[in-house]
Amino acid sequence: MEHVESTSYLLPLIGRKVRVFKGGPESKEGILLNVNADFLTLVTEENEIIYYQTMHSKTIVEDTRSQSQLSVNKKIKNKALKDKSFNSLLRQMVTKQVQINRGGPESLIGILVNLHEDFLTLQTENEGIIFFQIHHIKSISIVESEDSSNNKKEDSSSSTTSKKSSTNSSNKKKEEANSSVKALTFDVPIISAQYFKDLLNQYKHRWVTINRGGPESVEGVLAEVTNDYTTVIHHEKVFRIANYHIHNVSNTSKHDKNKQENSKKDDTNKSDNKEQSNSTDSKDNNQSNQKNNGDTQNKNNNKDSSEKEKNNKNNSKQNDRNGKSKDQNDKNKEKNGKENKGKNSSKDNKNNSDKKTALYYLLMNSLNQNLTDSINIKKNSL
After folding, report:
1. pLDDT recorded at residue 36
2. ∠ at Cα 343 (339, 344), nearest 5°?
3. Contact at 8 Å (CB) between 123 and 110?
4. CA dihedral in degrees (21, 23, 25, 28; nearest 10)?
5. Which of 143, 150, 118, 149 is nearest to 132 (CA)?
6. In degrees to the nearest 10, what's the CA dihedral of 111, 115, 120, 125?
7. pLDDT tens for residues 268-303?
């Protein structure tokens, strides 16, 4: 009941636009959907449902610009899990893919394999099995599949560029998780412990990593577990860590993680090199084909050019012949013209000569006649 009283001040904010945490990687803005005994439910503008433990929610900021209650998509509202306590809520998420915490070194994505009294078992792709103390979980959400994420995008309203950038970053992280879930195997070690202290005792004298990531990360051999603290030895250093402040523990090391990452990089590089080689071969083939096509084209062009040139020469020769034939015809016409002209001139001269001869004989006959007449006249007069 104390928890209900401690969160009762949040009840009037249900349906209002609020920001959980003022700043930092856990800070998210959205509509406050539910307030329960030890957790609250927030629906972000990207339609992501986040469950916050109220014991870590230091600040709740209300957006006074939205005076009235805001409505939440009915599909999203129905998808929100409801339960009396945070532990009971986690039990509904067993076998589902979840994201623990929003960001920072302690943000994890994996399959919630099992739930114990005060810790849970999470299987991740890169770091294997990680055991997380429940009271150190600030927030948790179910990682949707790609299809569900696409549906969320369709249902969501238009947003600013900064919102799109945040959505793209979140979706990228979830897509990586979605691609990894297919490769996860459920080869989970048998854990009989129900409490975190008993779990630590199971890993005594074994190599462990405590508080993975961040400045308080420690790895080494787990030497001793007491009611208050745990001792880890790494070479010449002895670390004593308060049990309450152990957020998570795993049976892997940075060396194993780096080795796995290097192996993945090698596989990626091999794949890239293979693709690059195939691309190079394809490029060479294309270049060779282009060269062959170019040579064939050049040959065809040269052939066409040669034939064209030959045709031009033939046409030129034919034109020369035609020109010569024309000149010869002109000469023949000129010669025939001169000959015809000479013939016509000779004929004209002959005709003129004949006319003159006829005229001469006519004149002579006329003269003789006149002379004869004159003689006769004279004789008669005598």
Report:
1. 93
2. 115
3. yes
4. 50
5. 118
6. -20
7. 666 666 667 666 666 666 666 666 666 666 666 666
Contact 47, 71 (CB under 8 A): no
115 in Cβ contact with 98 (< 8 Å): no
- Round to the nearest angstrom and report the end-to-end CA distance of the chain: 202
Specify the pTM. Answer: 0.62
Of 53, 60, 67, residue with least CA distance to 32: 60
136, 247 contact by CB (below 8 A): yes
Q: Which of 180, 200, 16 is nearest to 99 (CA)?
A: 180
Q: State the Cα torsion 223-224-225-228 to the nearest 10°.
A: -120
Selection from 212, 197, 80 nearest residue 140 by Cα: 80
- pLDDT per residue as tens digits for the range 63-94: 888 767 778 888 899 999 999 999 999 999 99
pLDDT tens figures, 98-108: 999 998 888 99
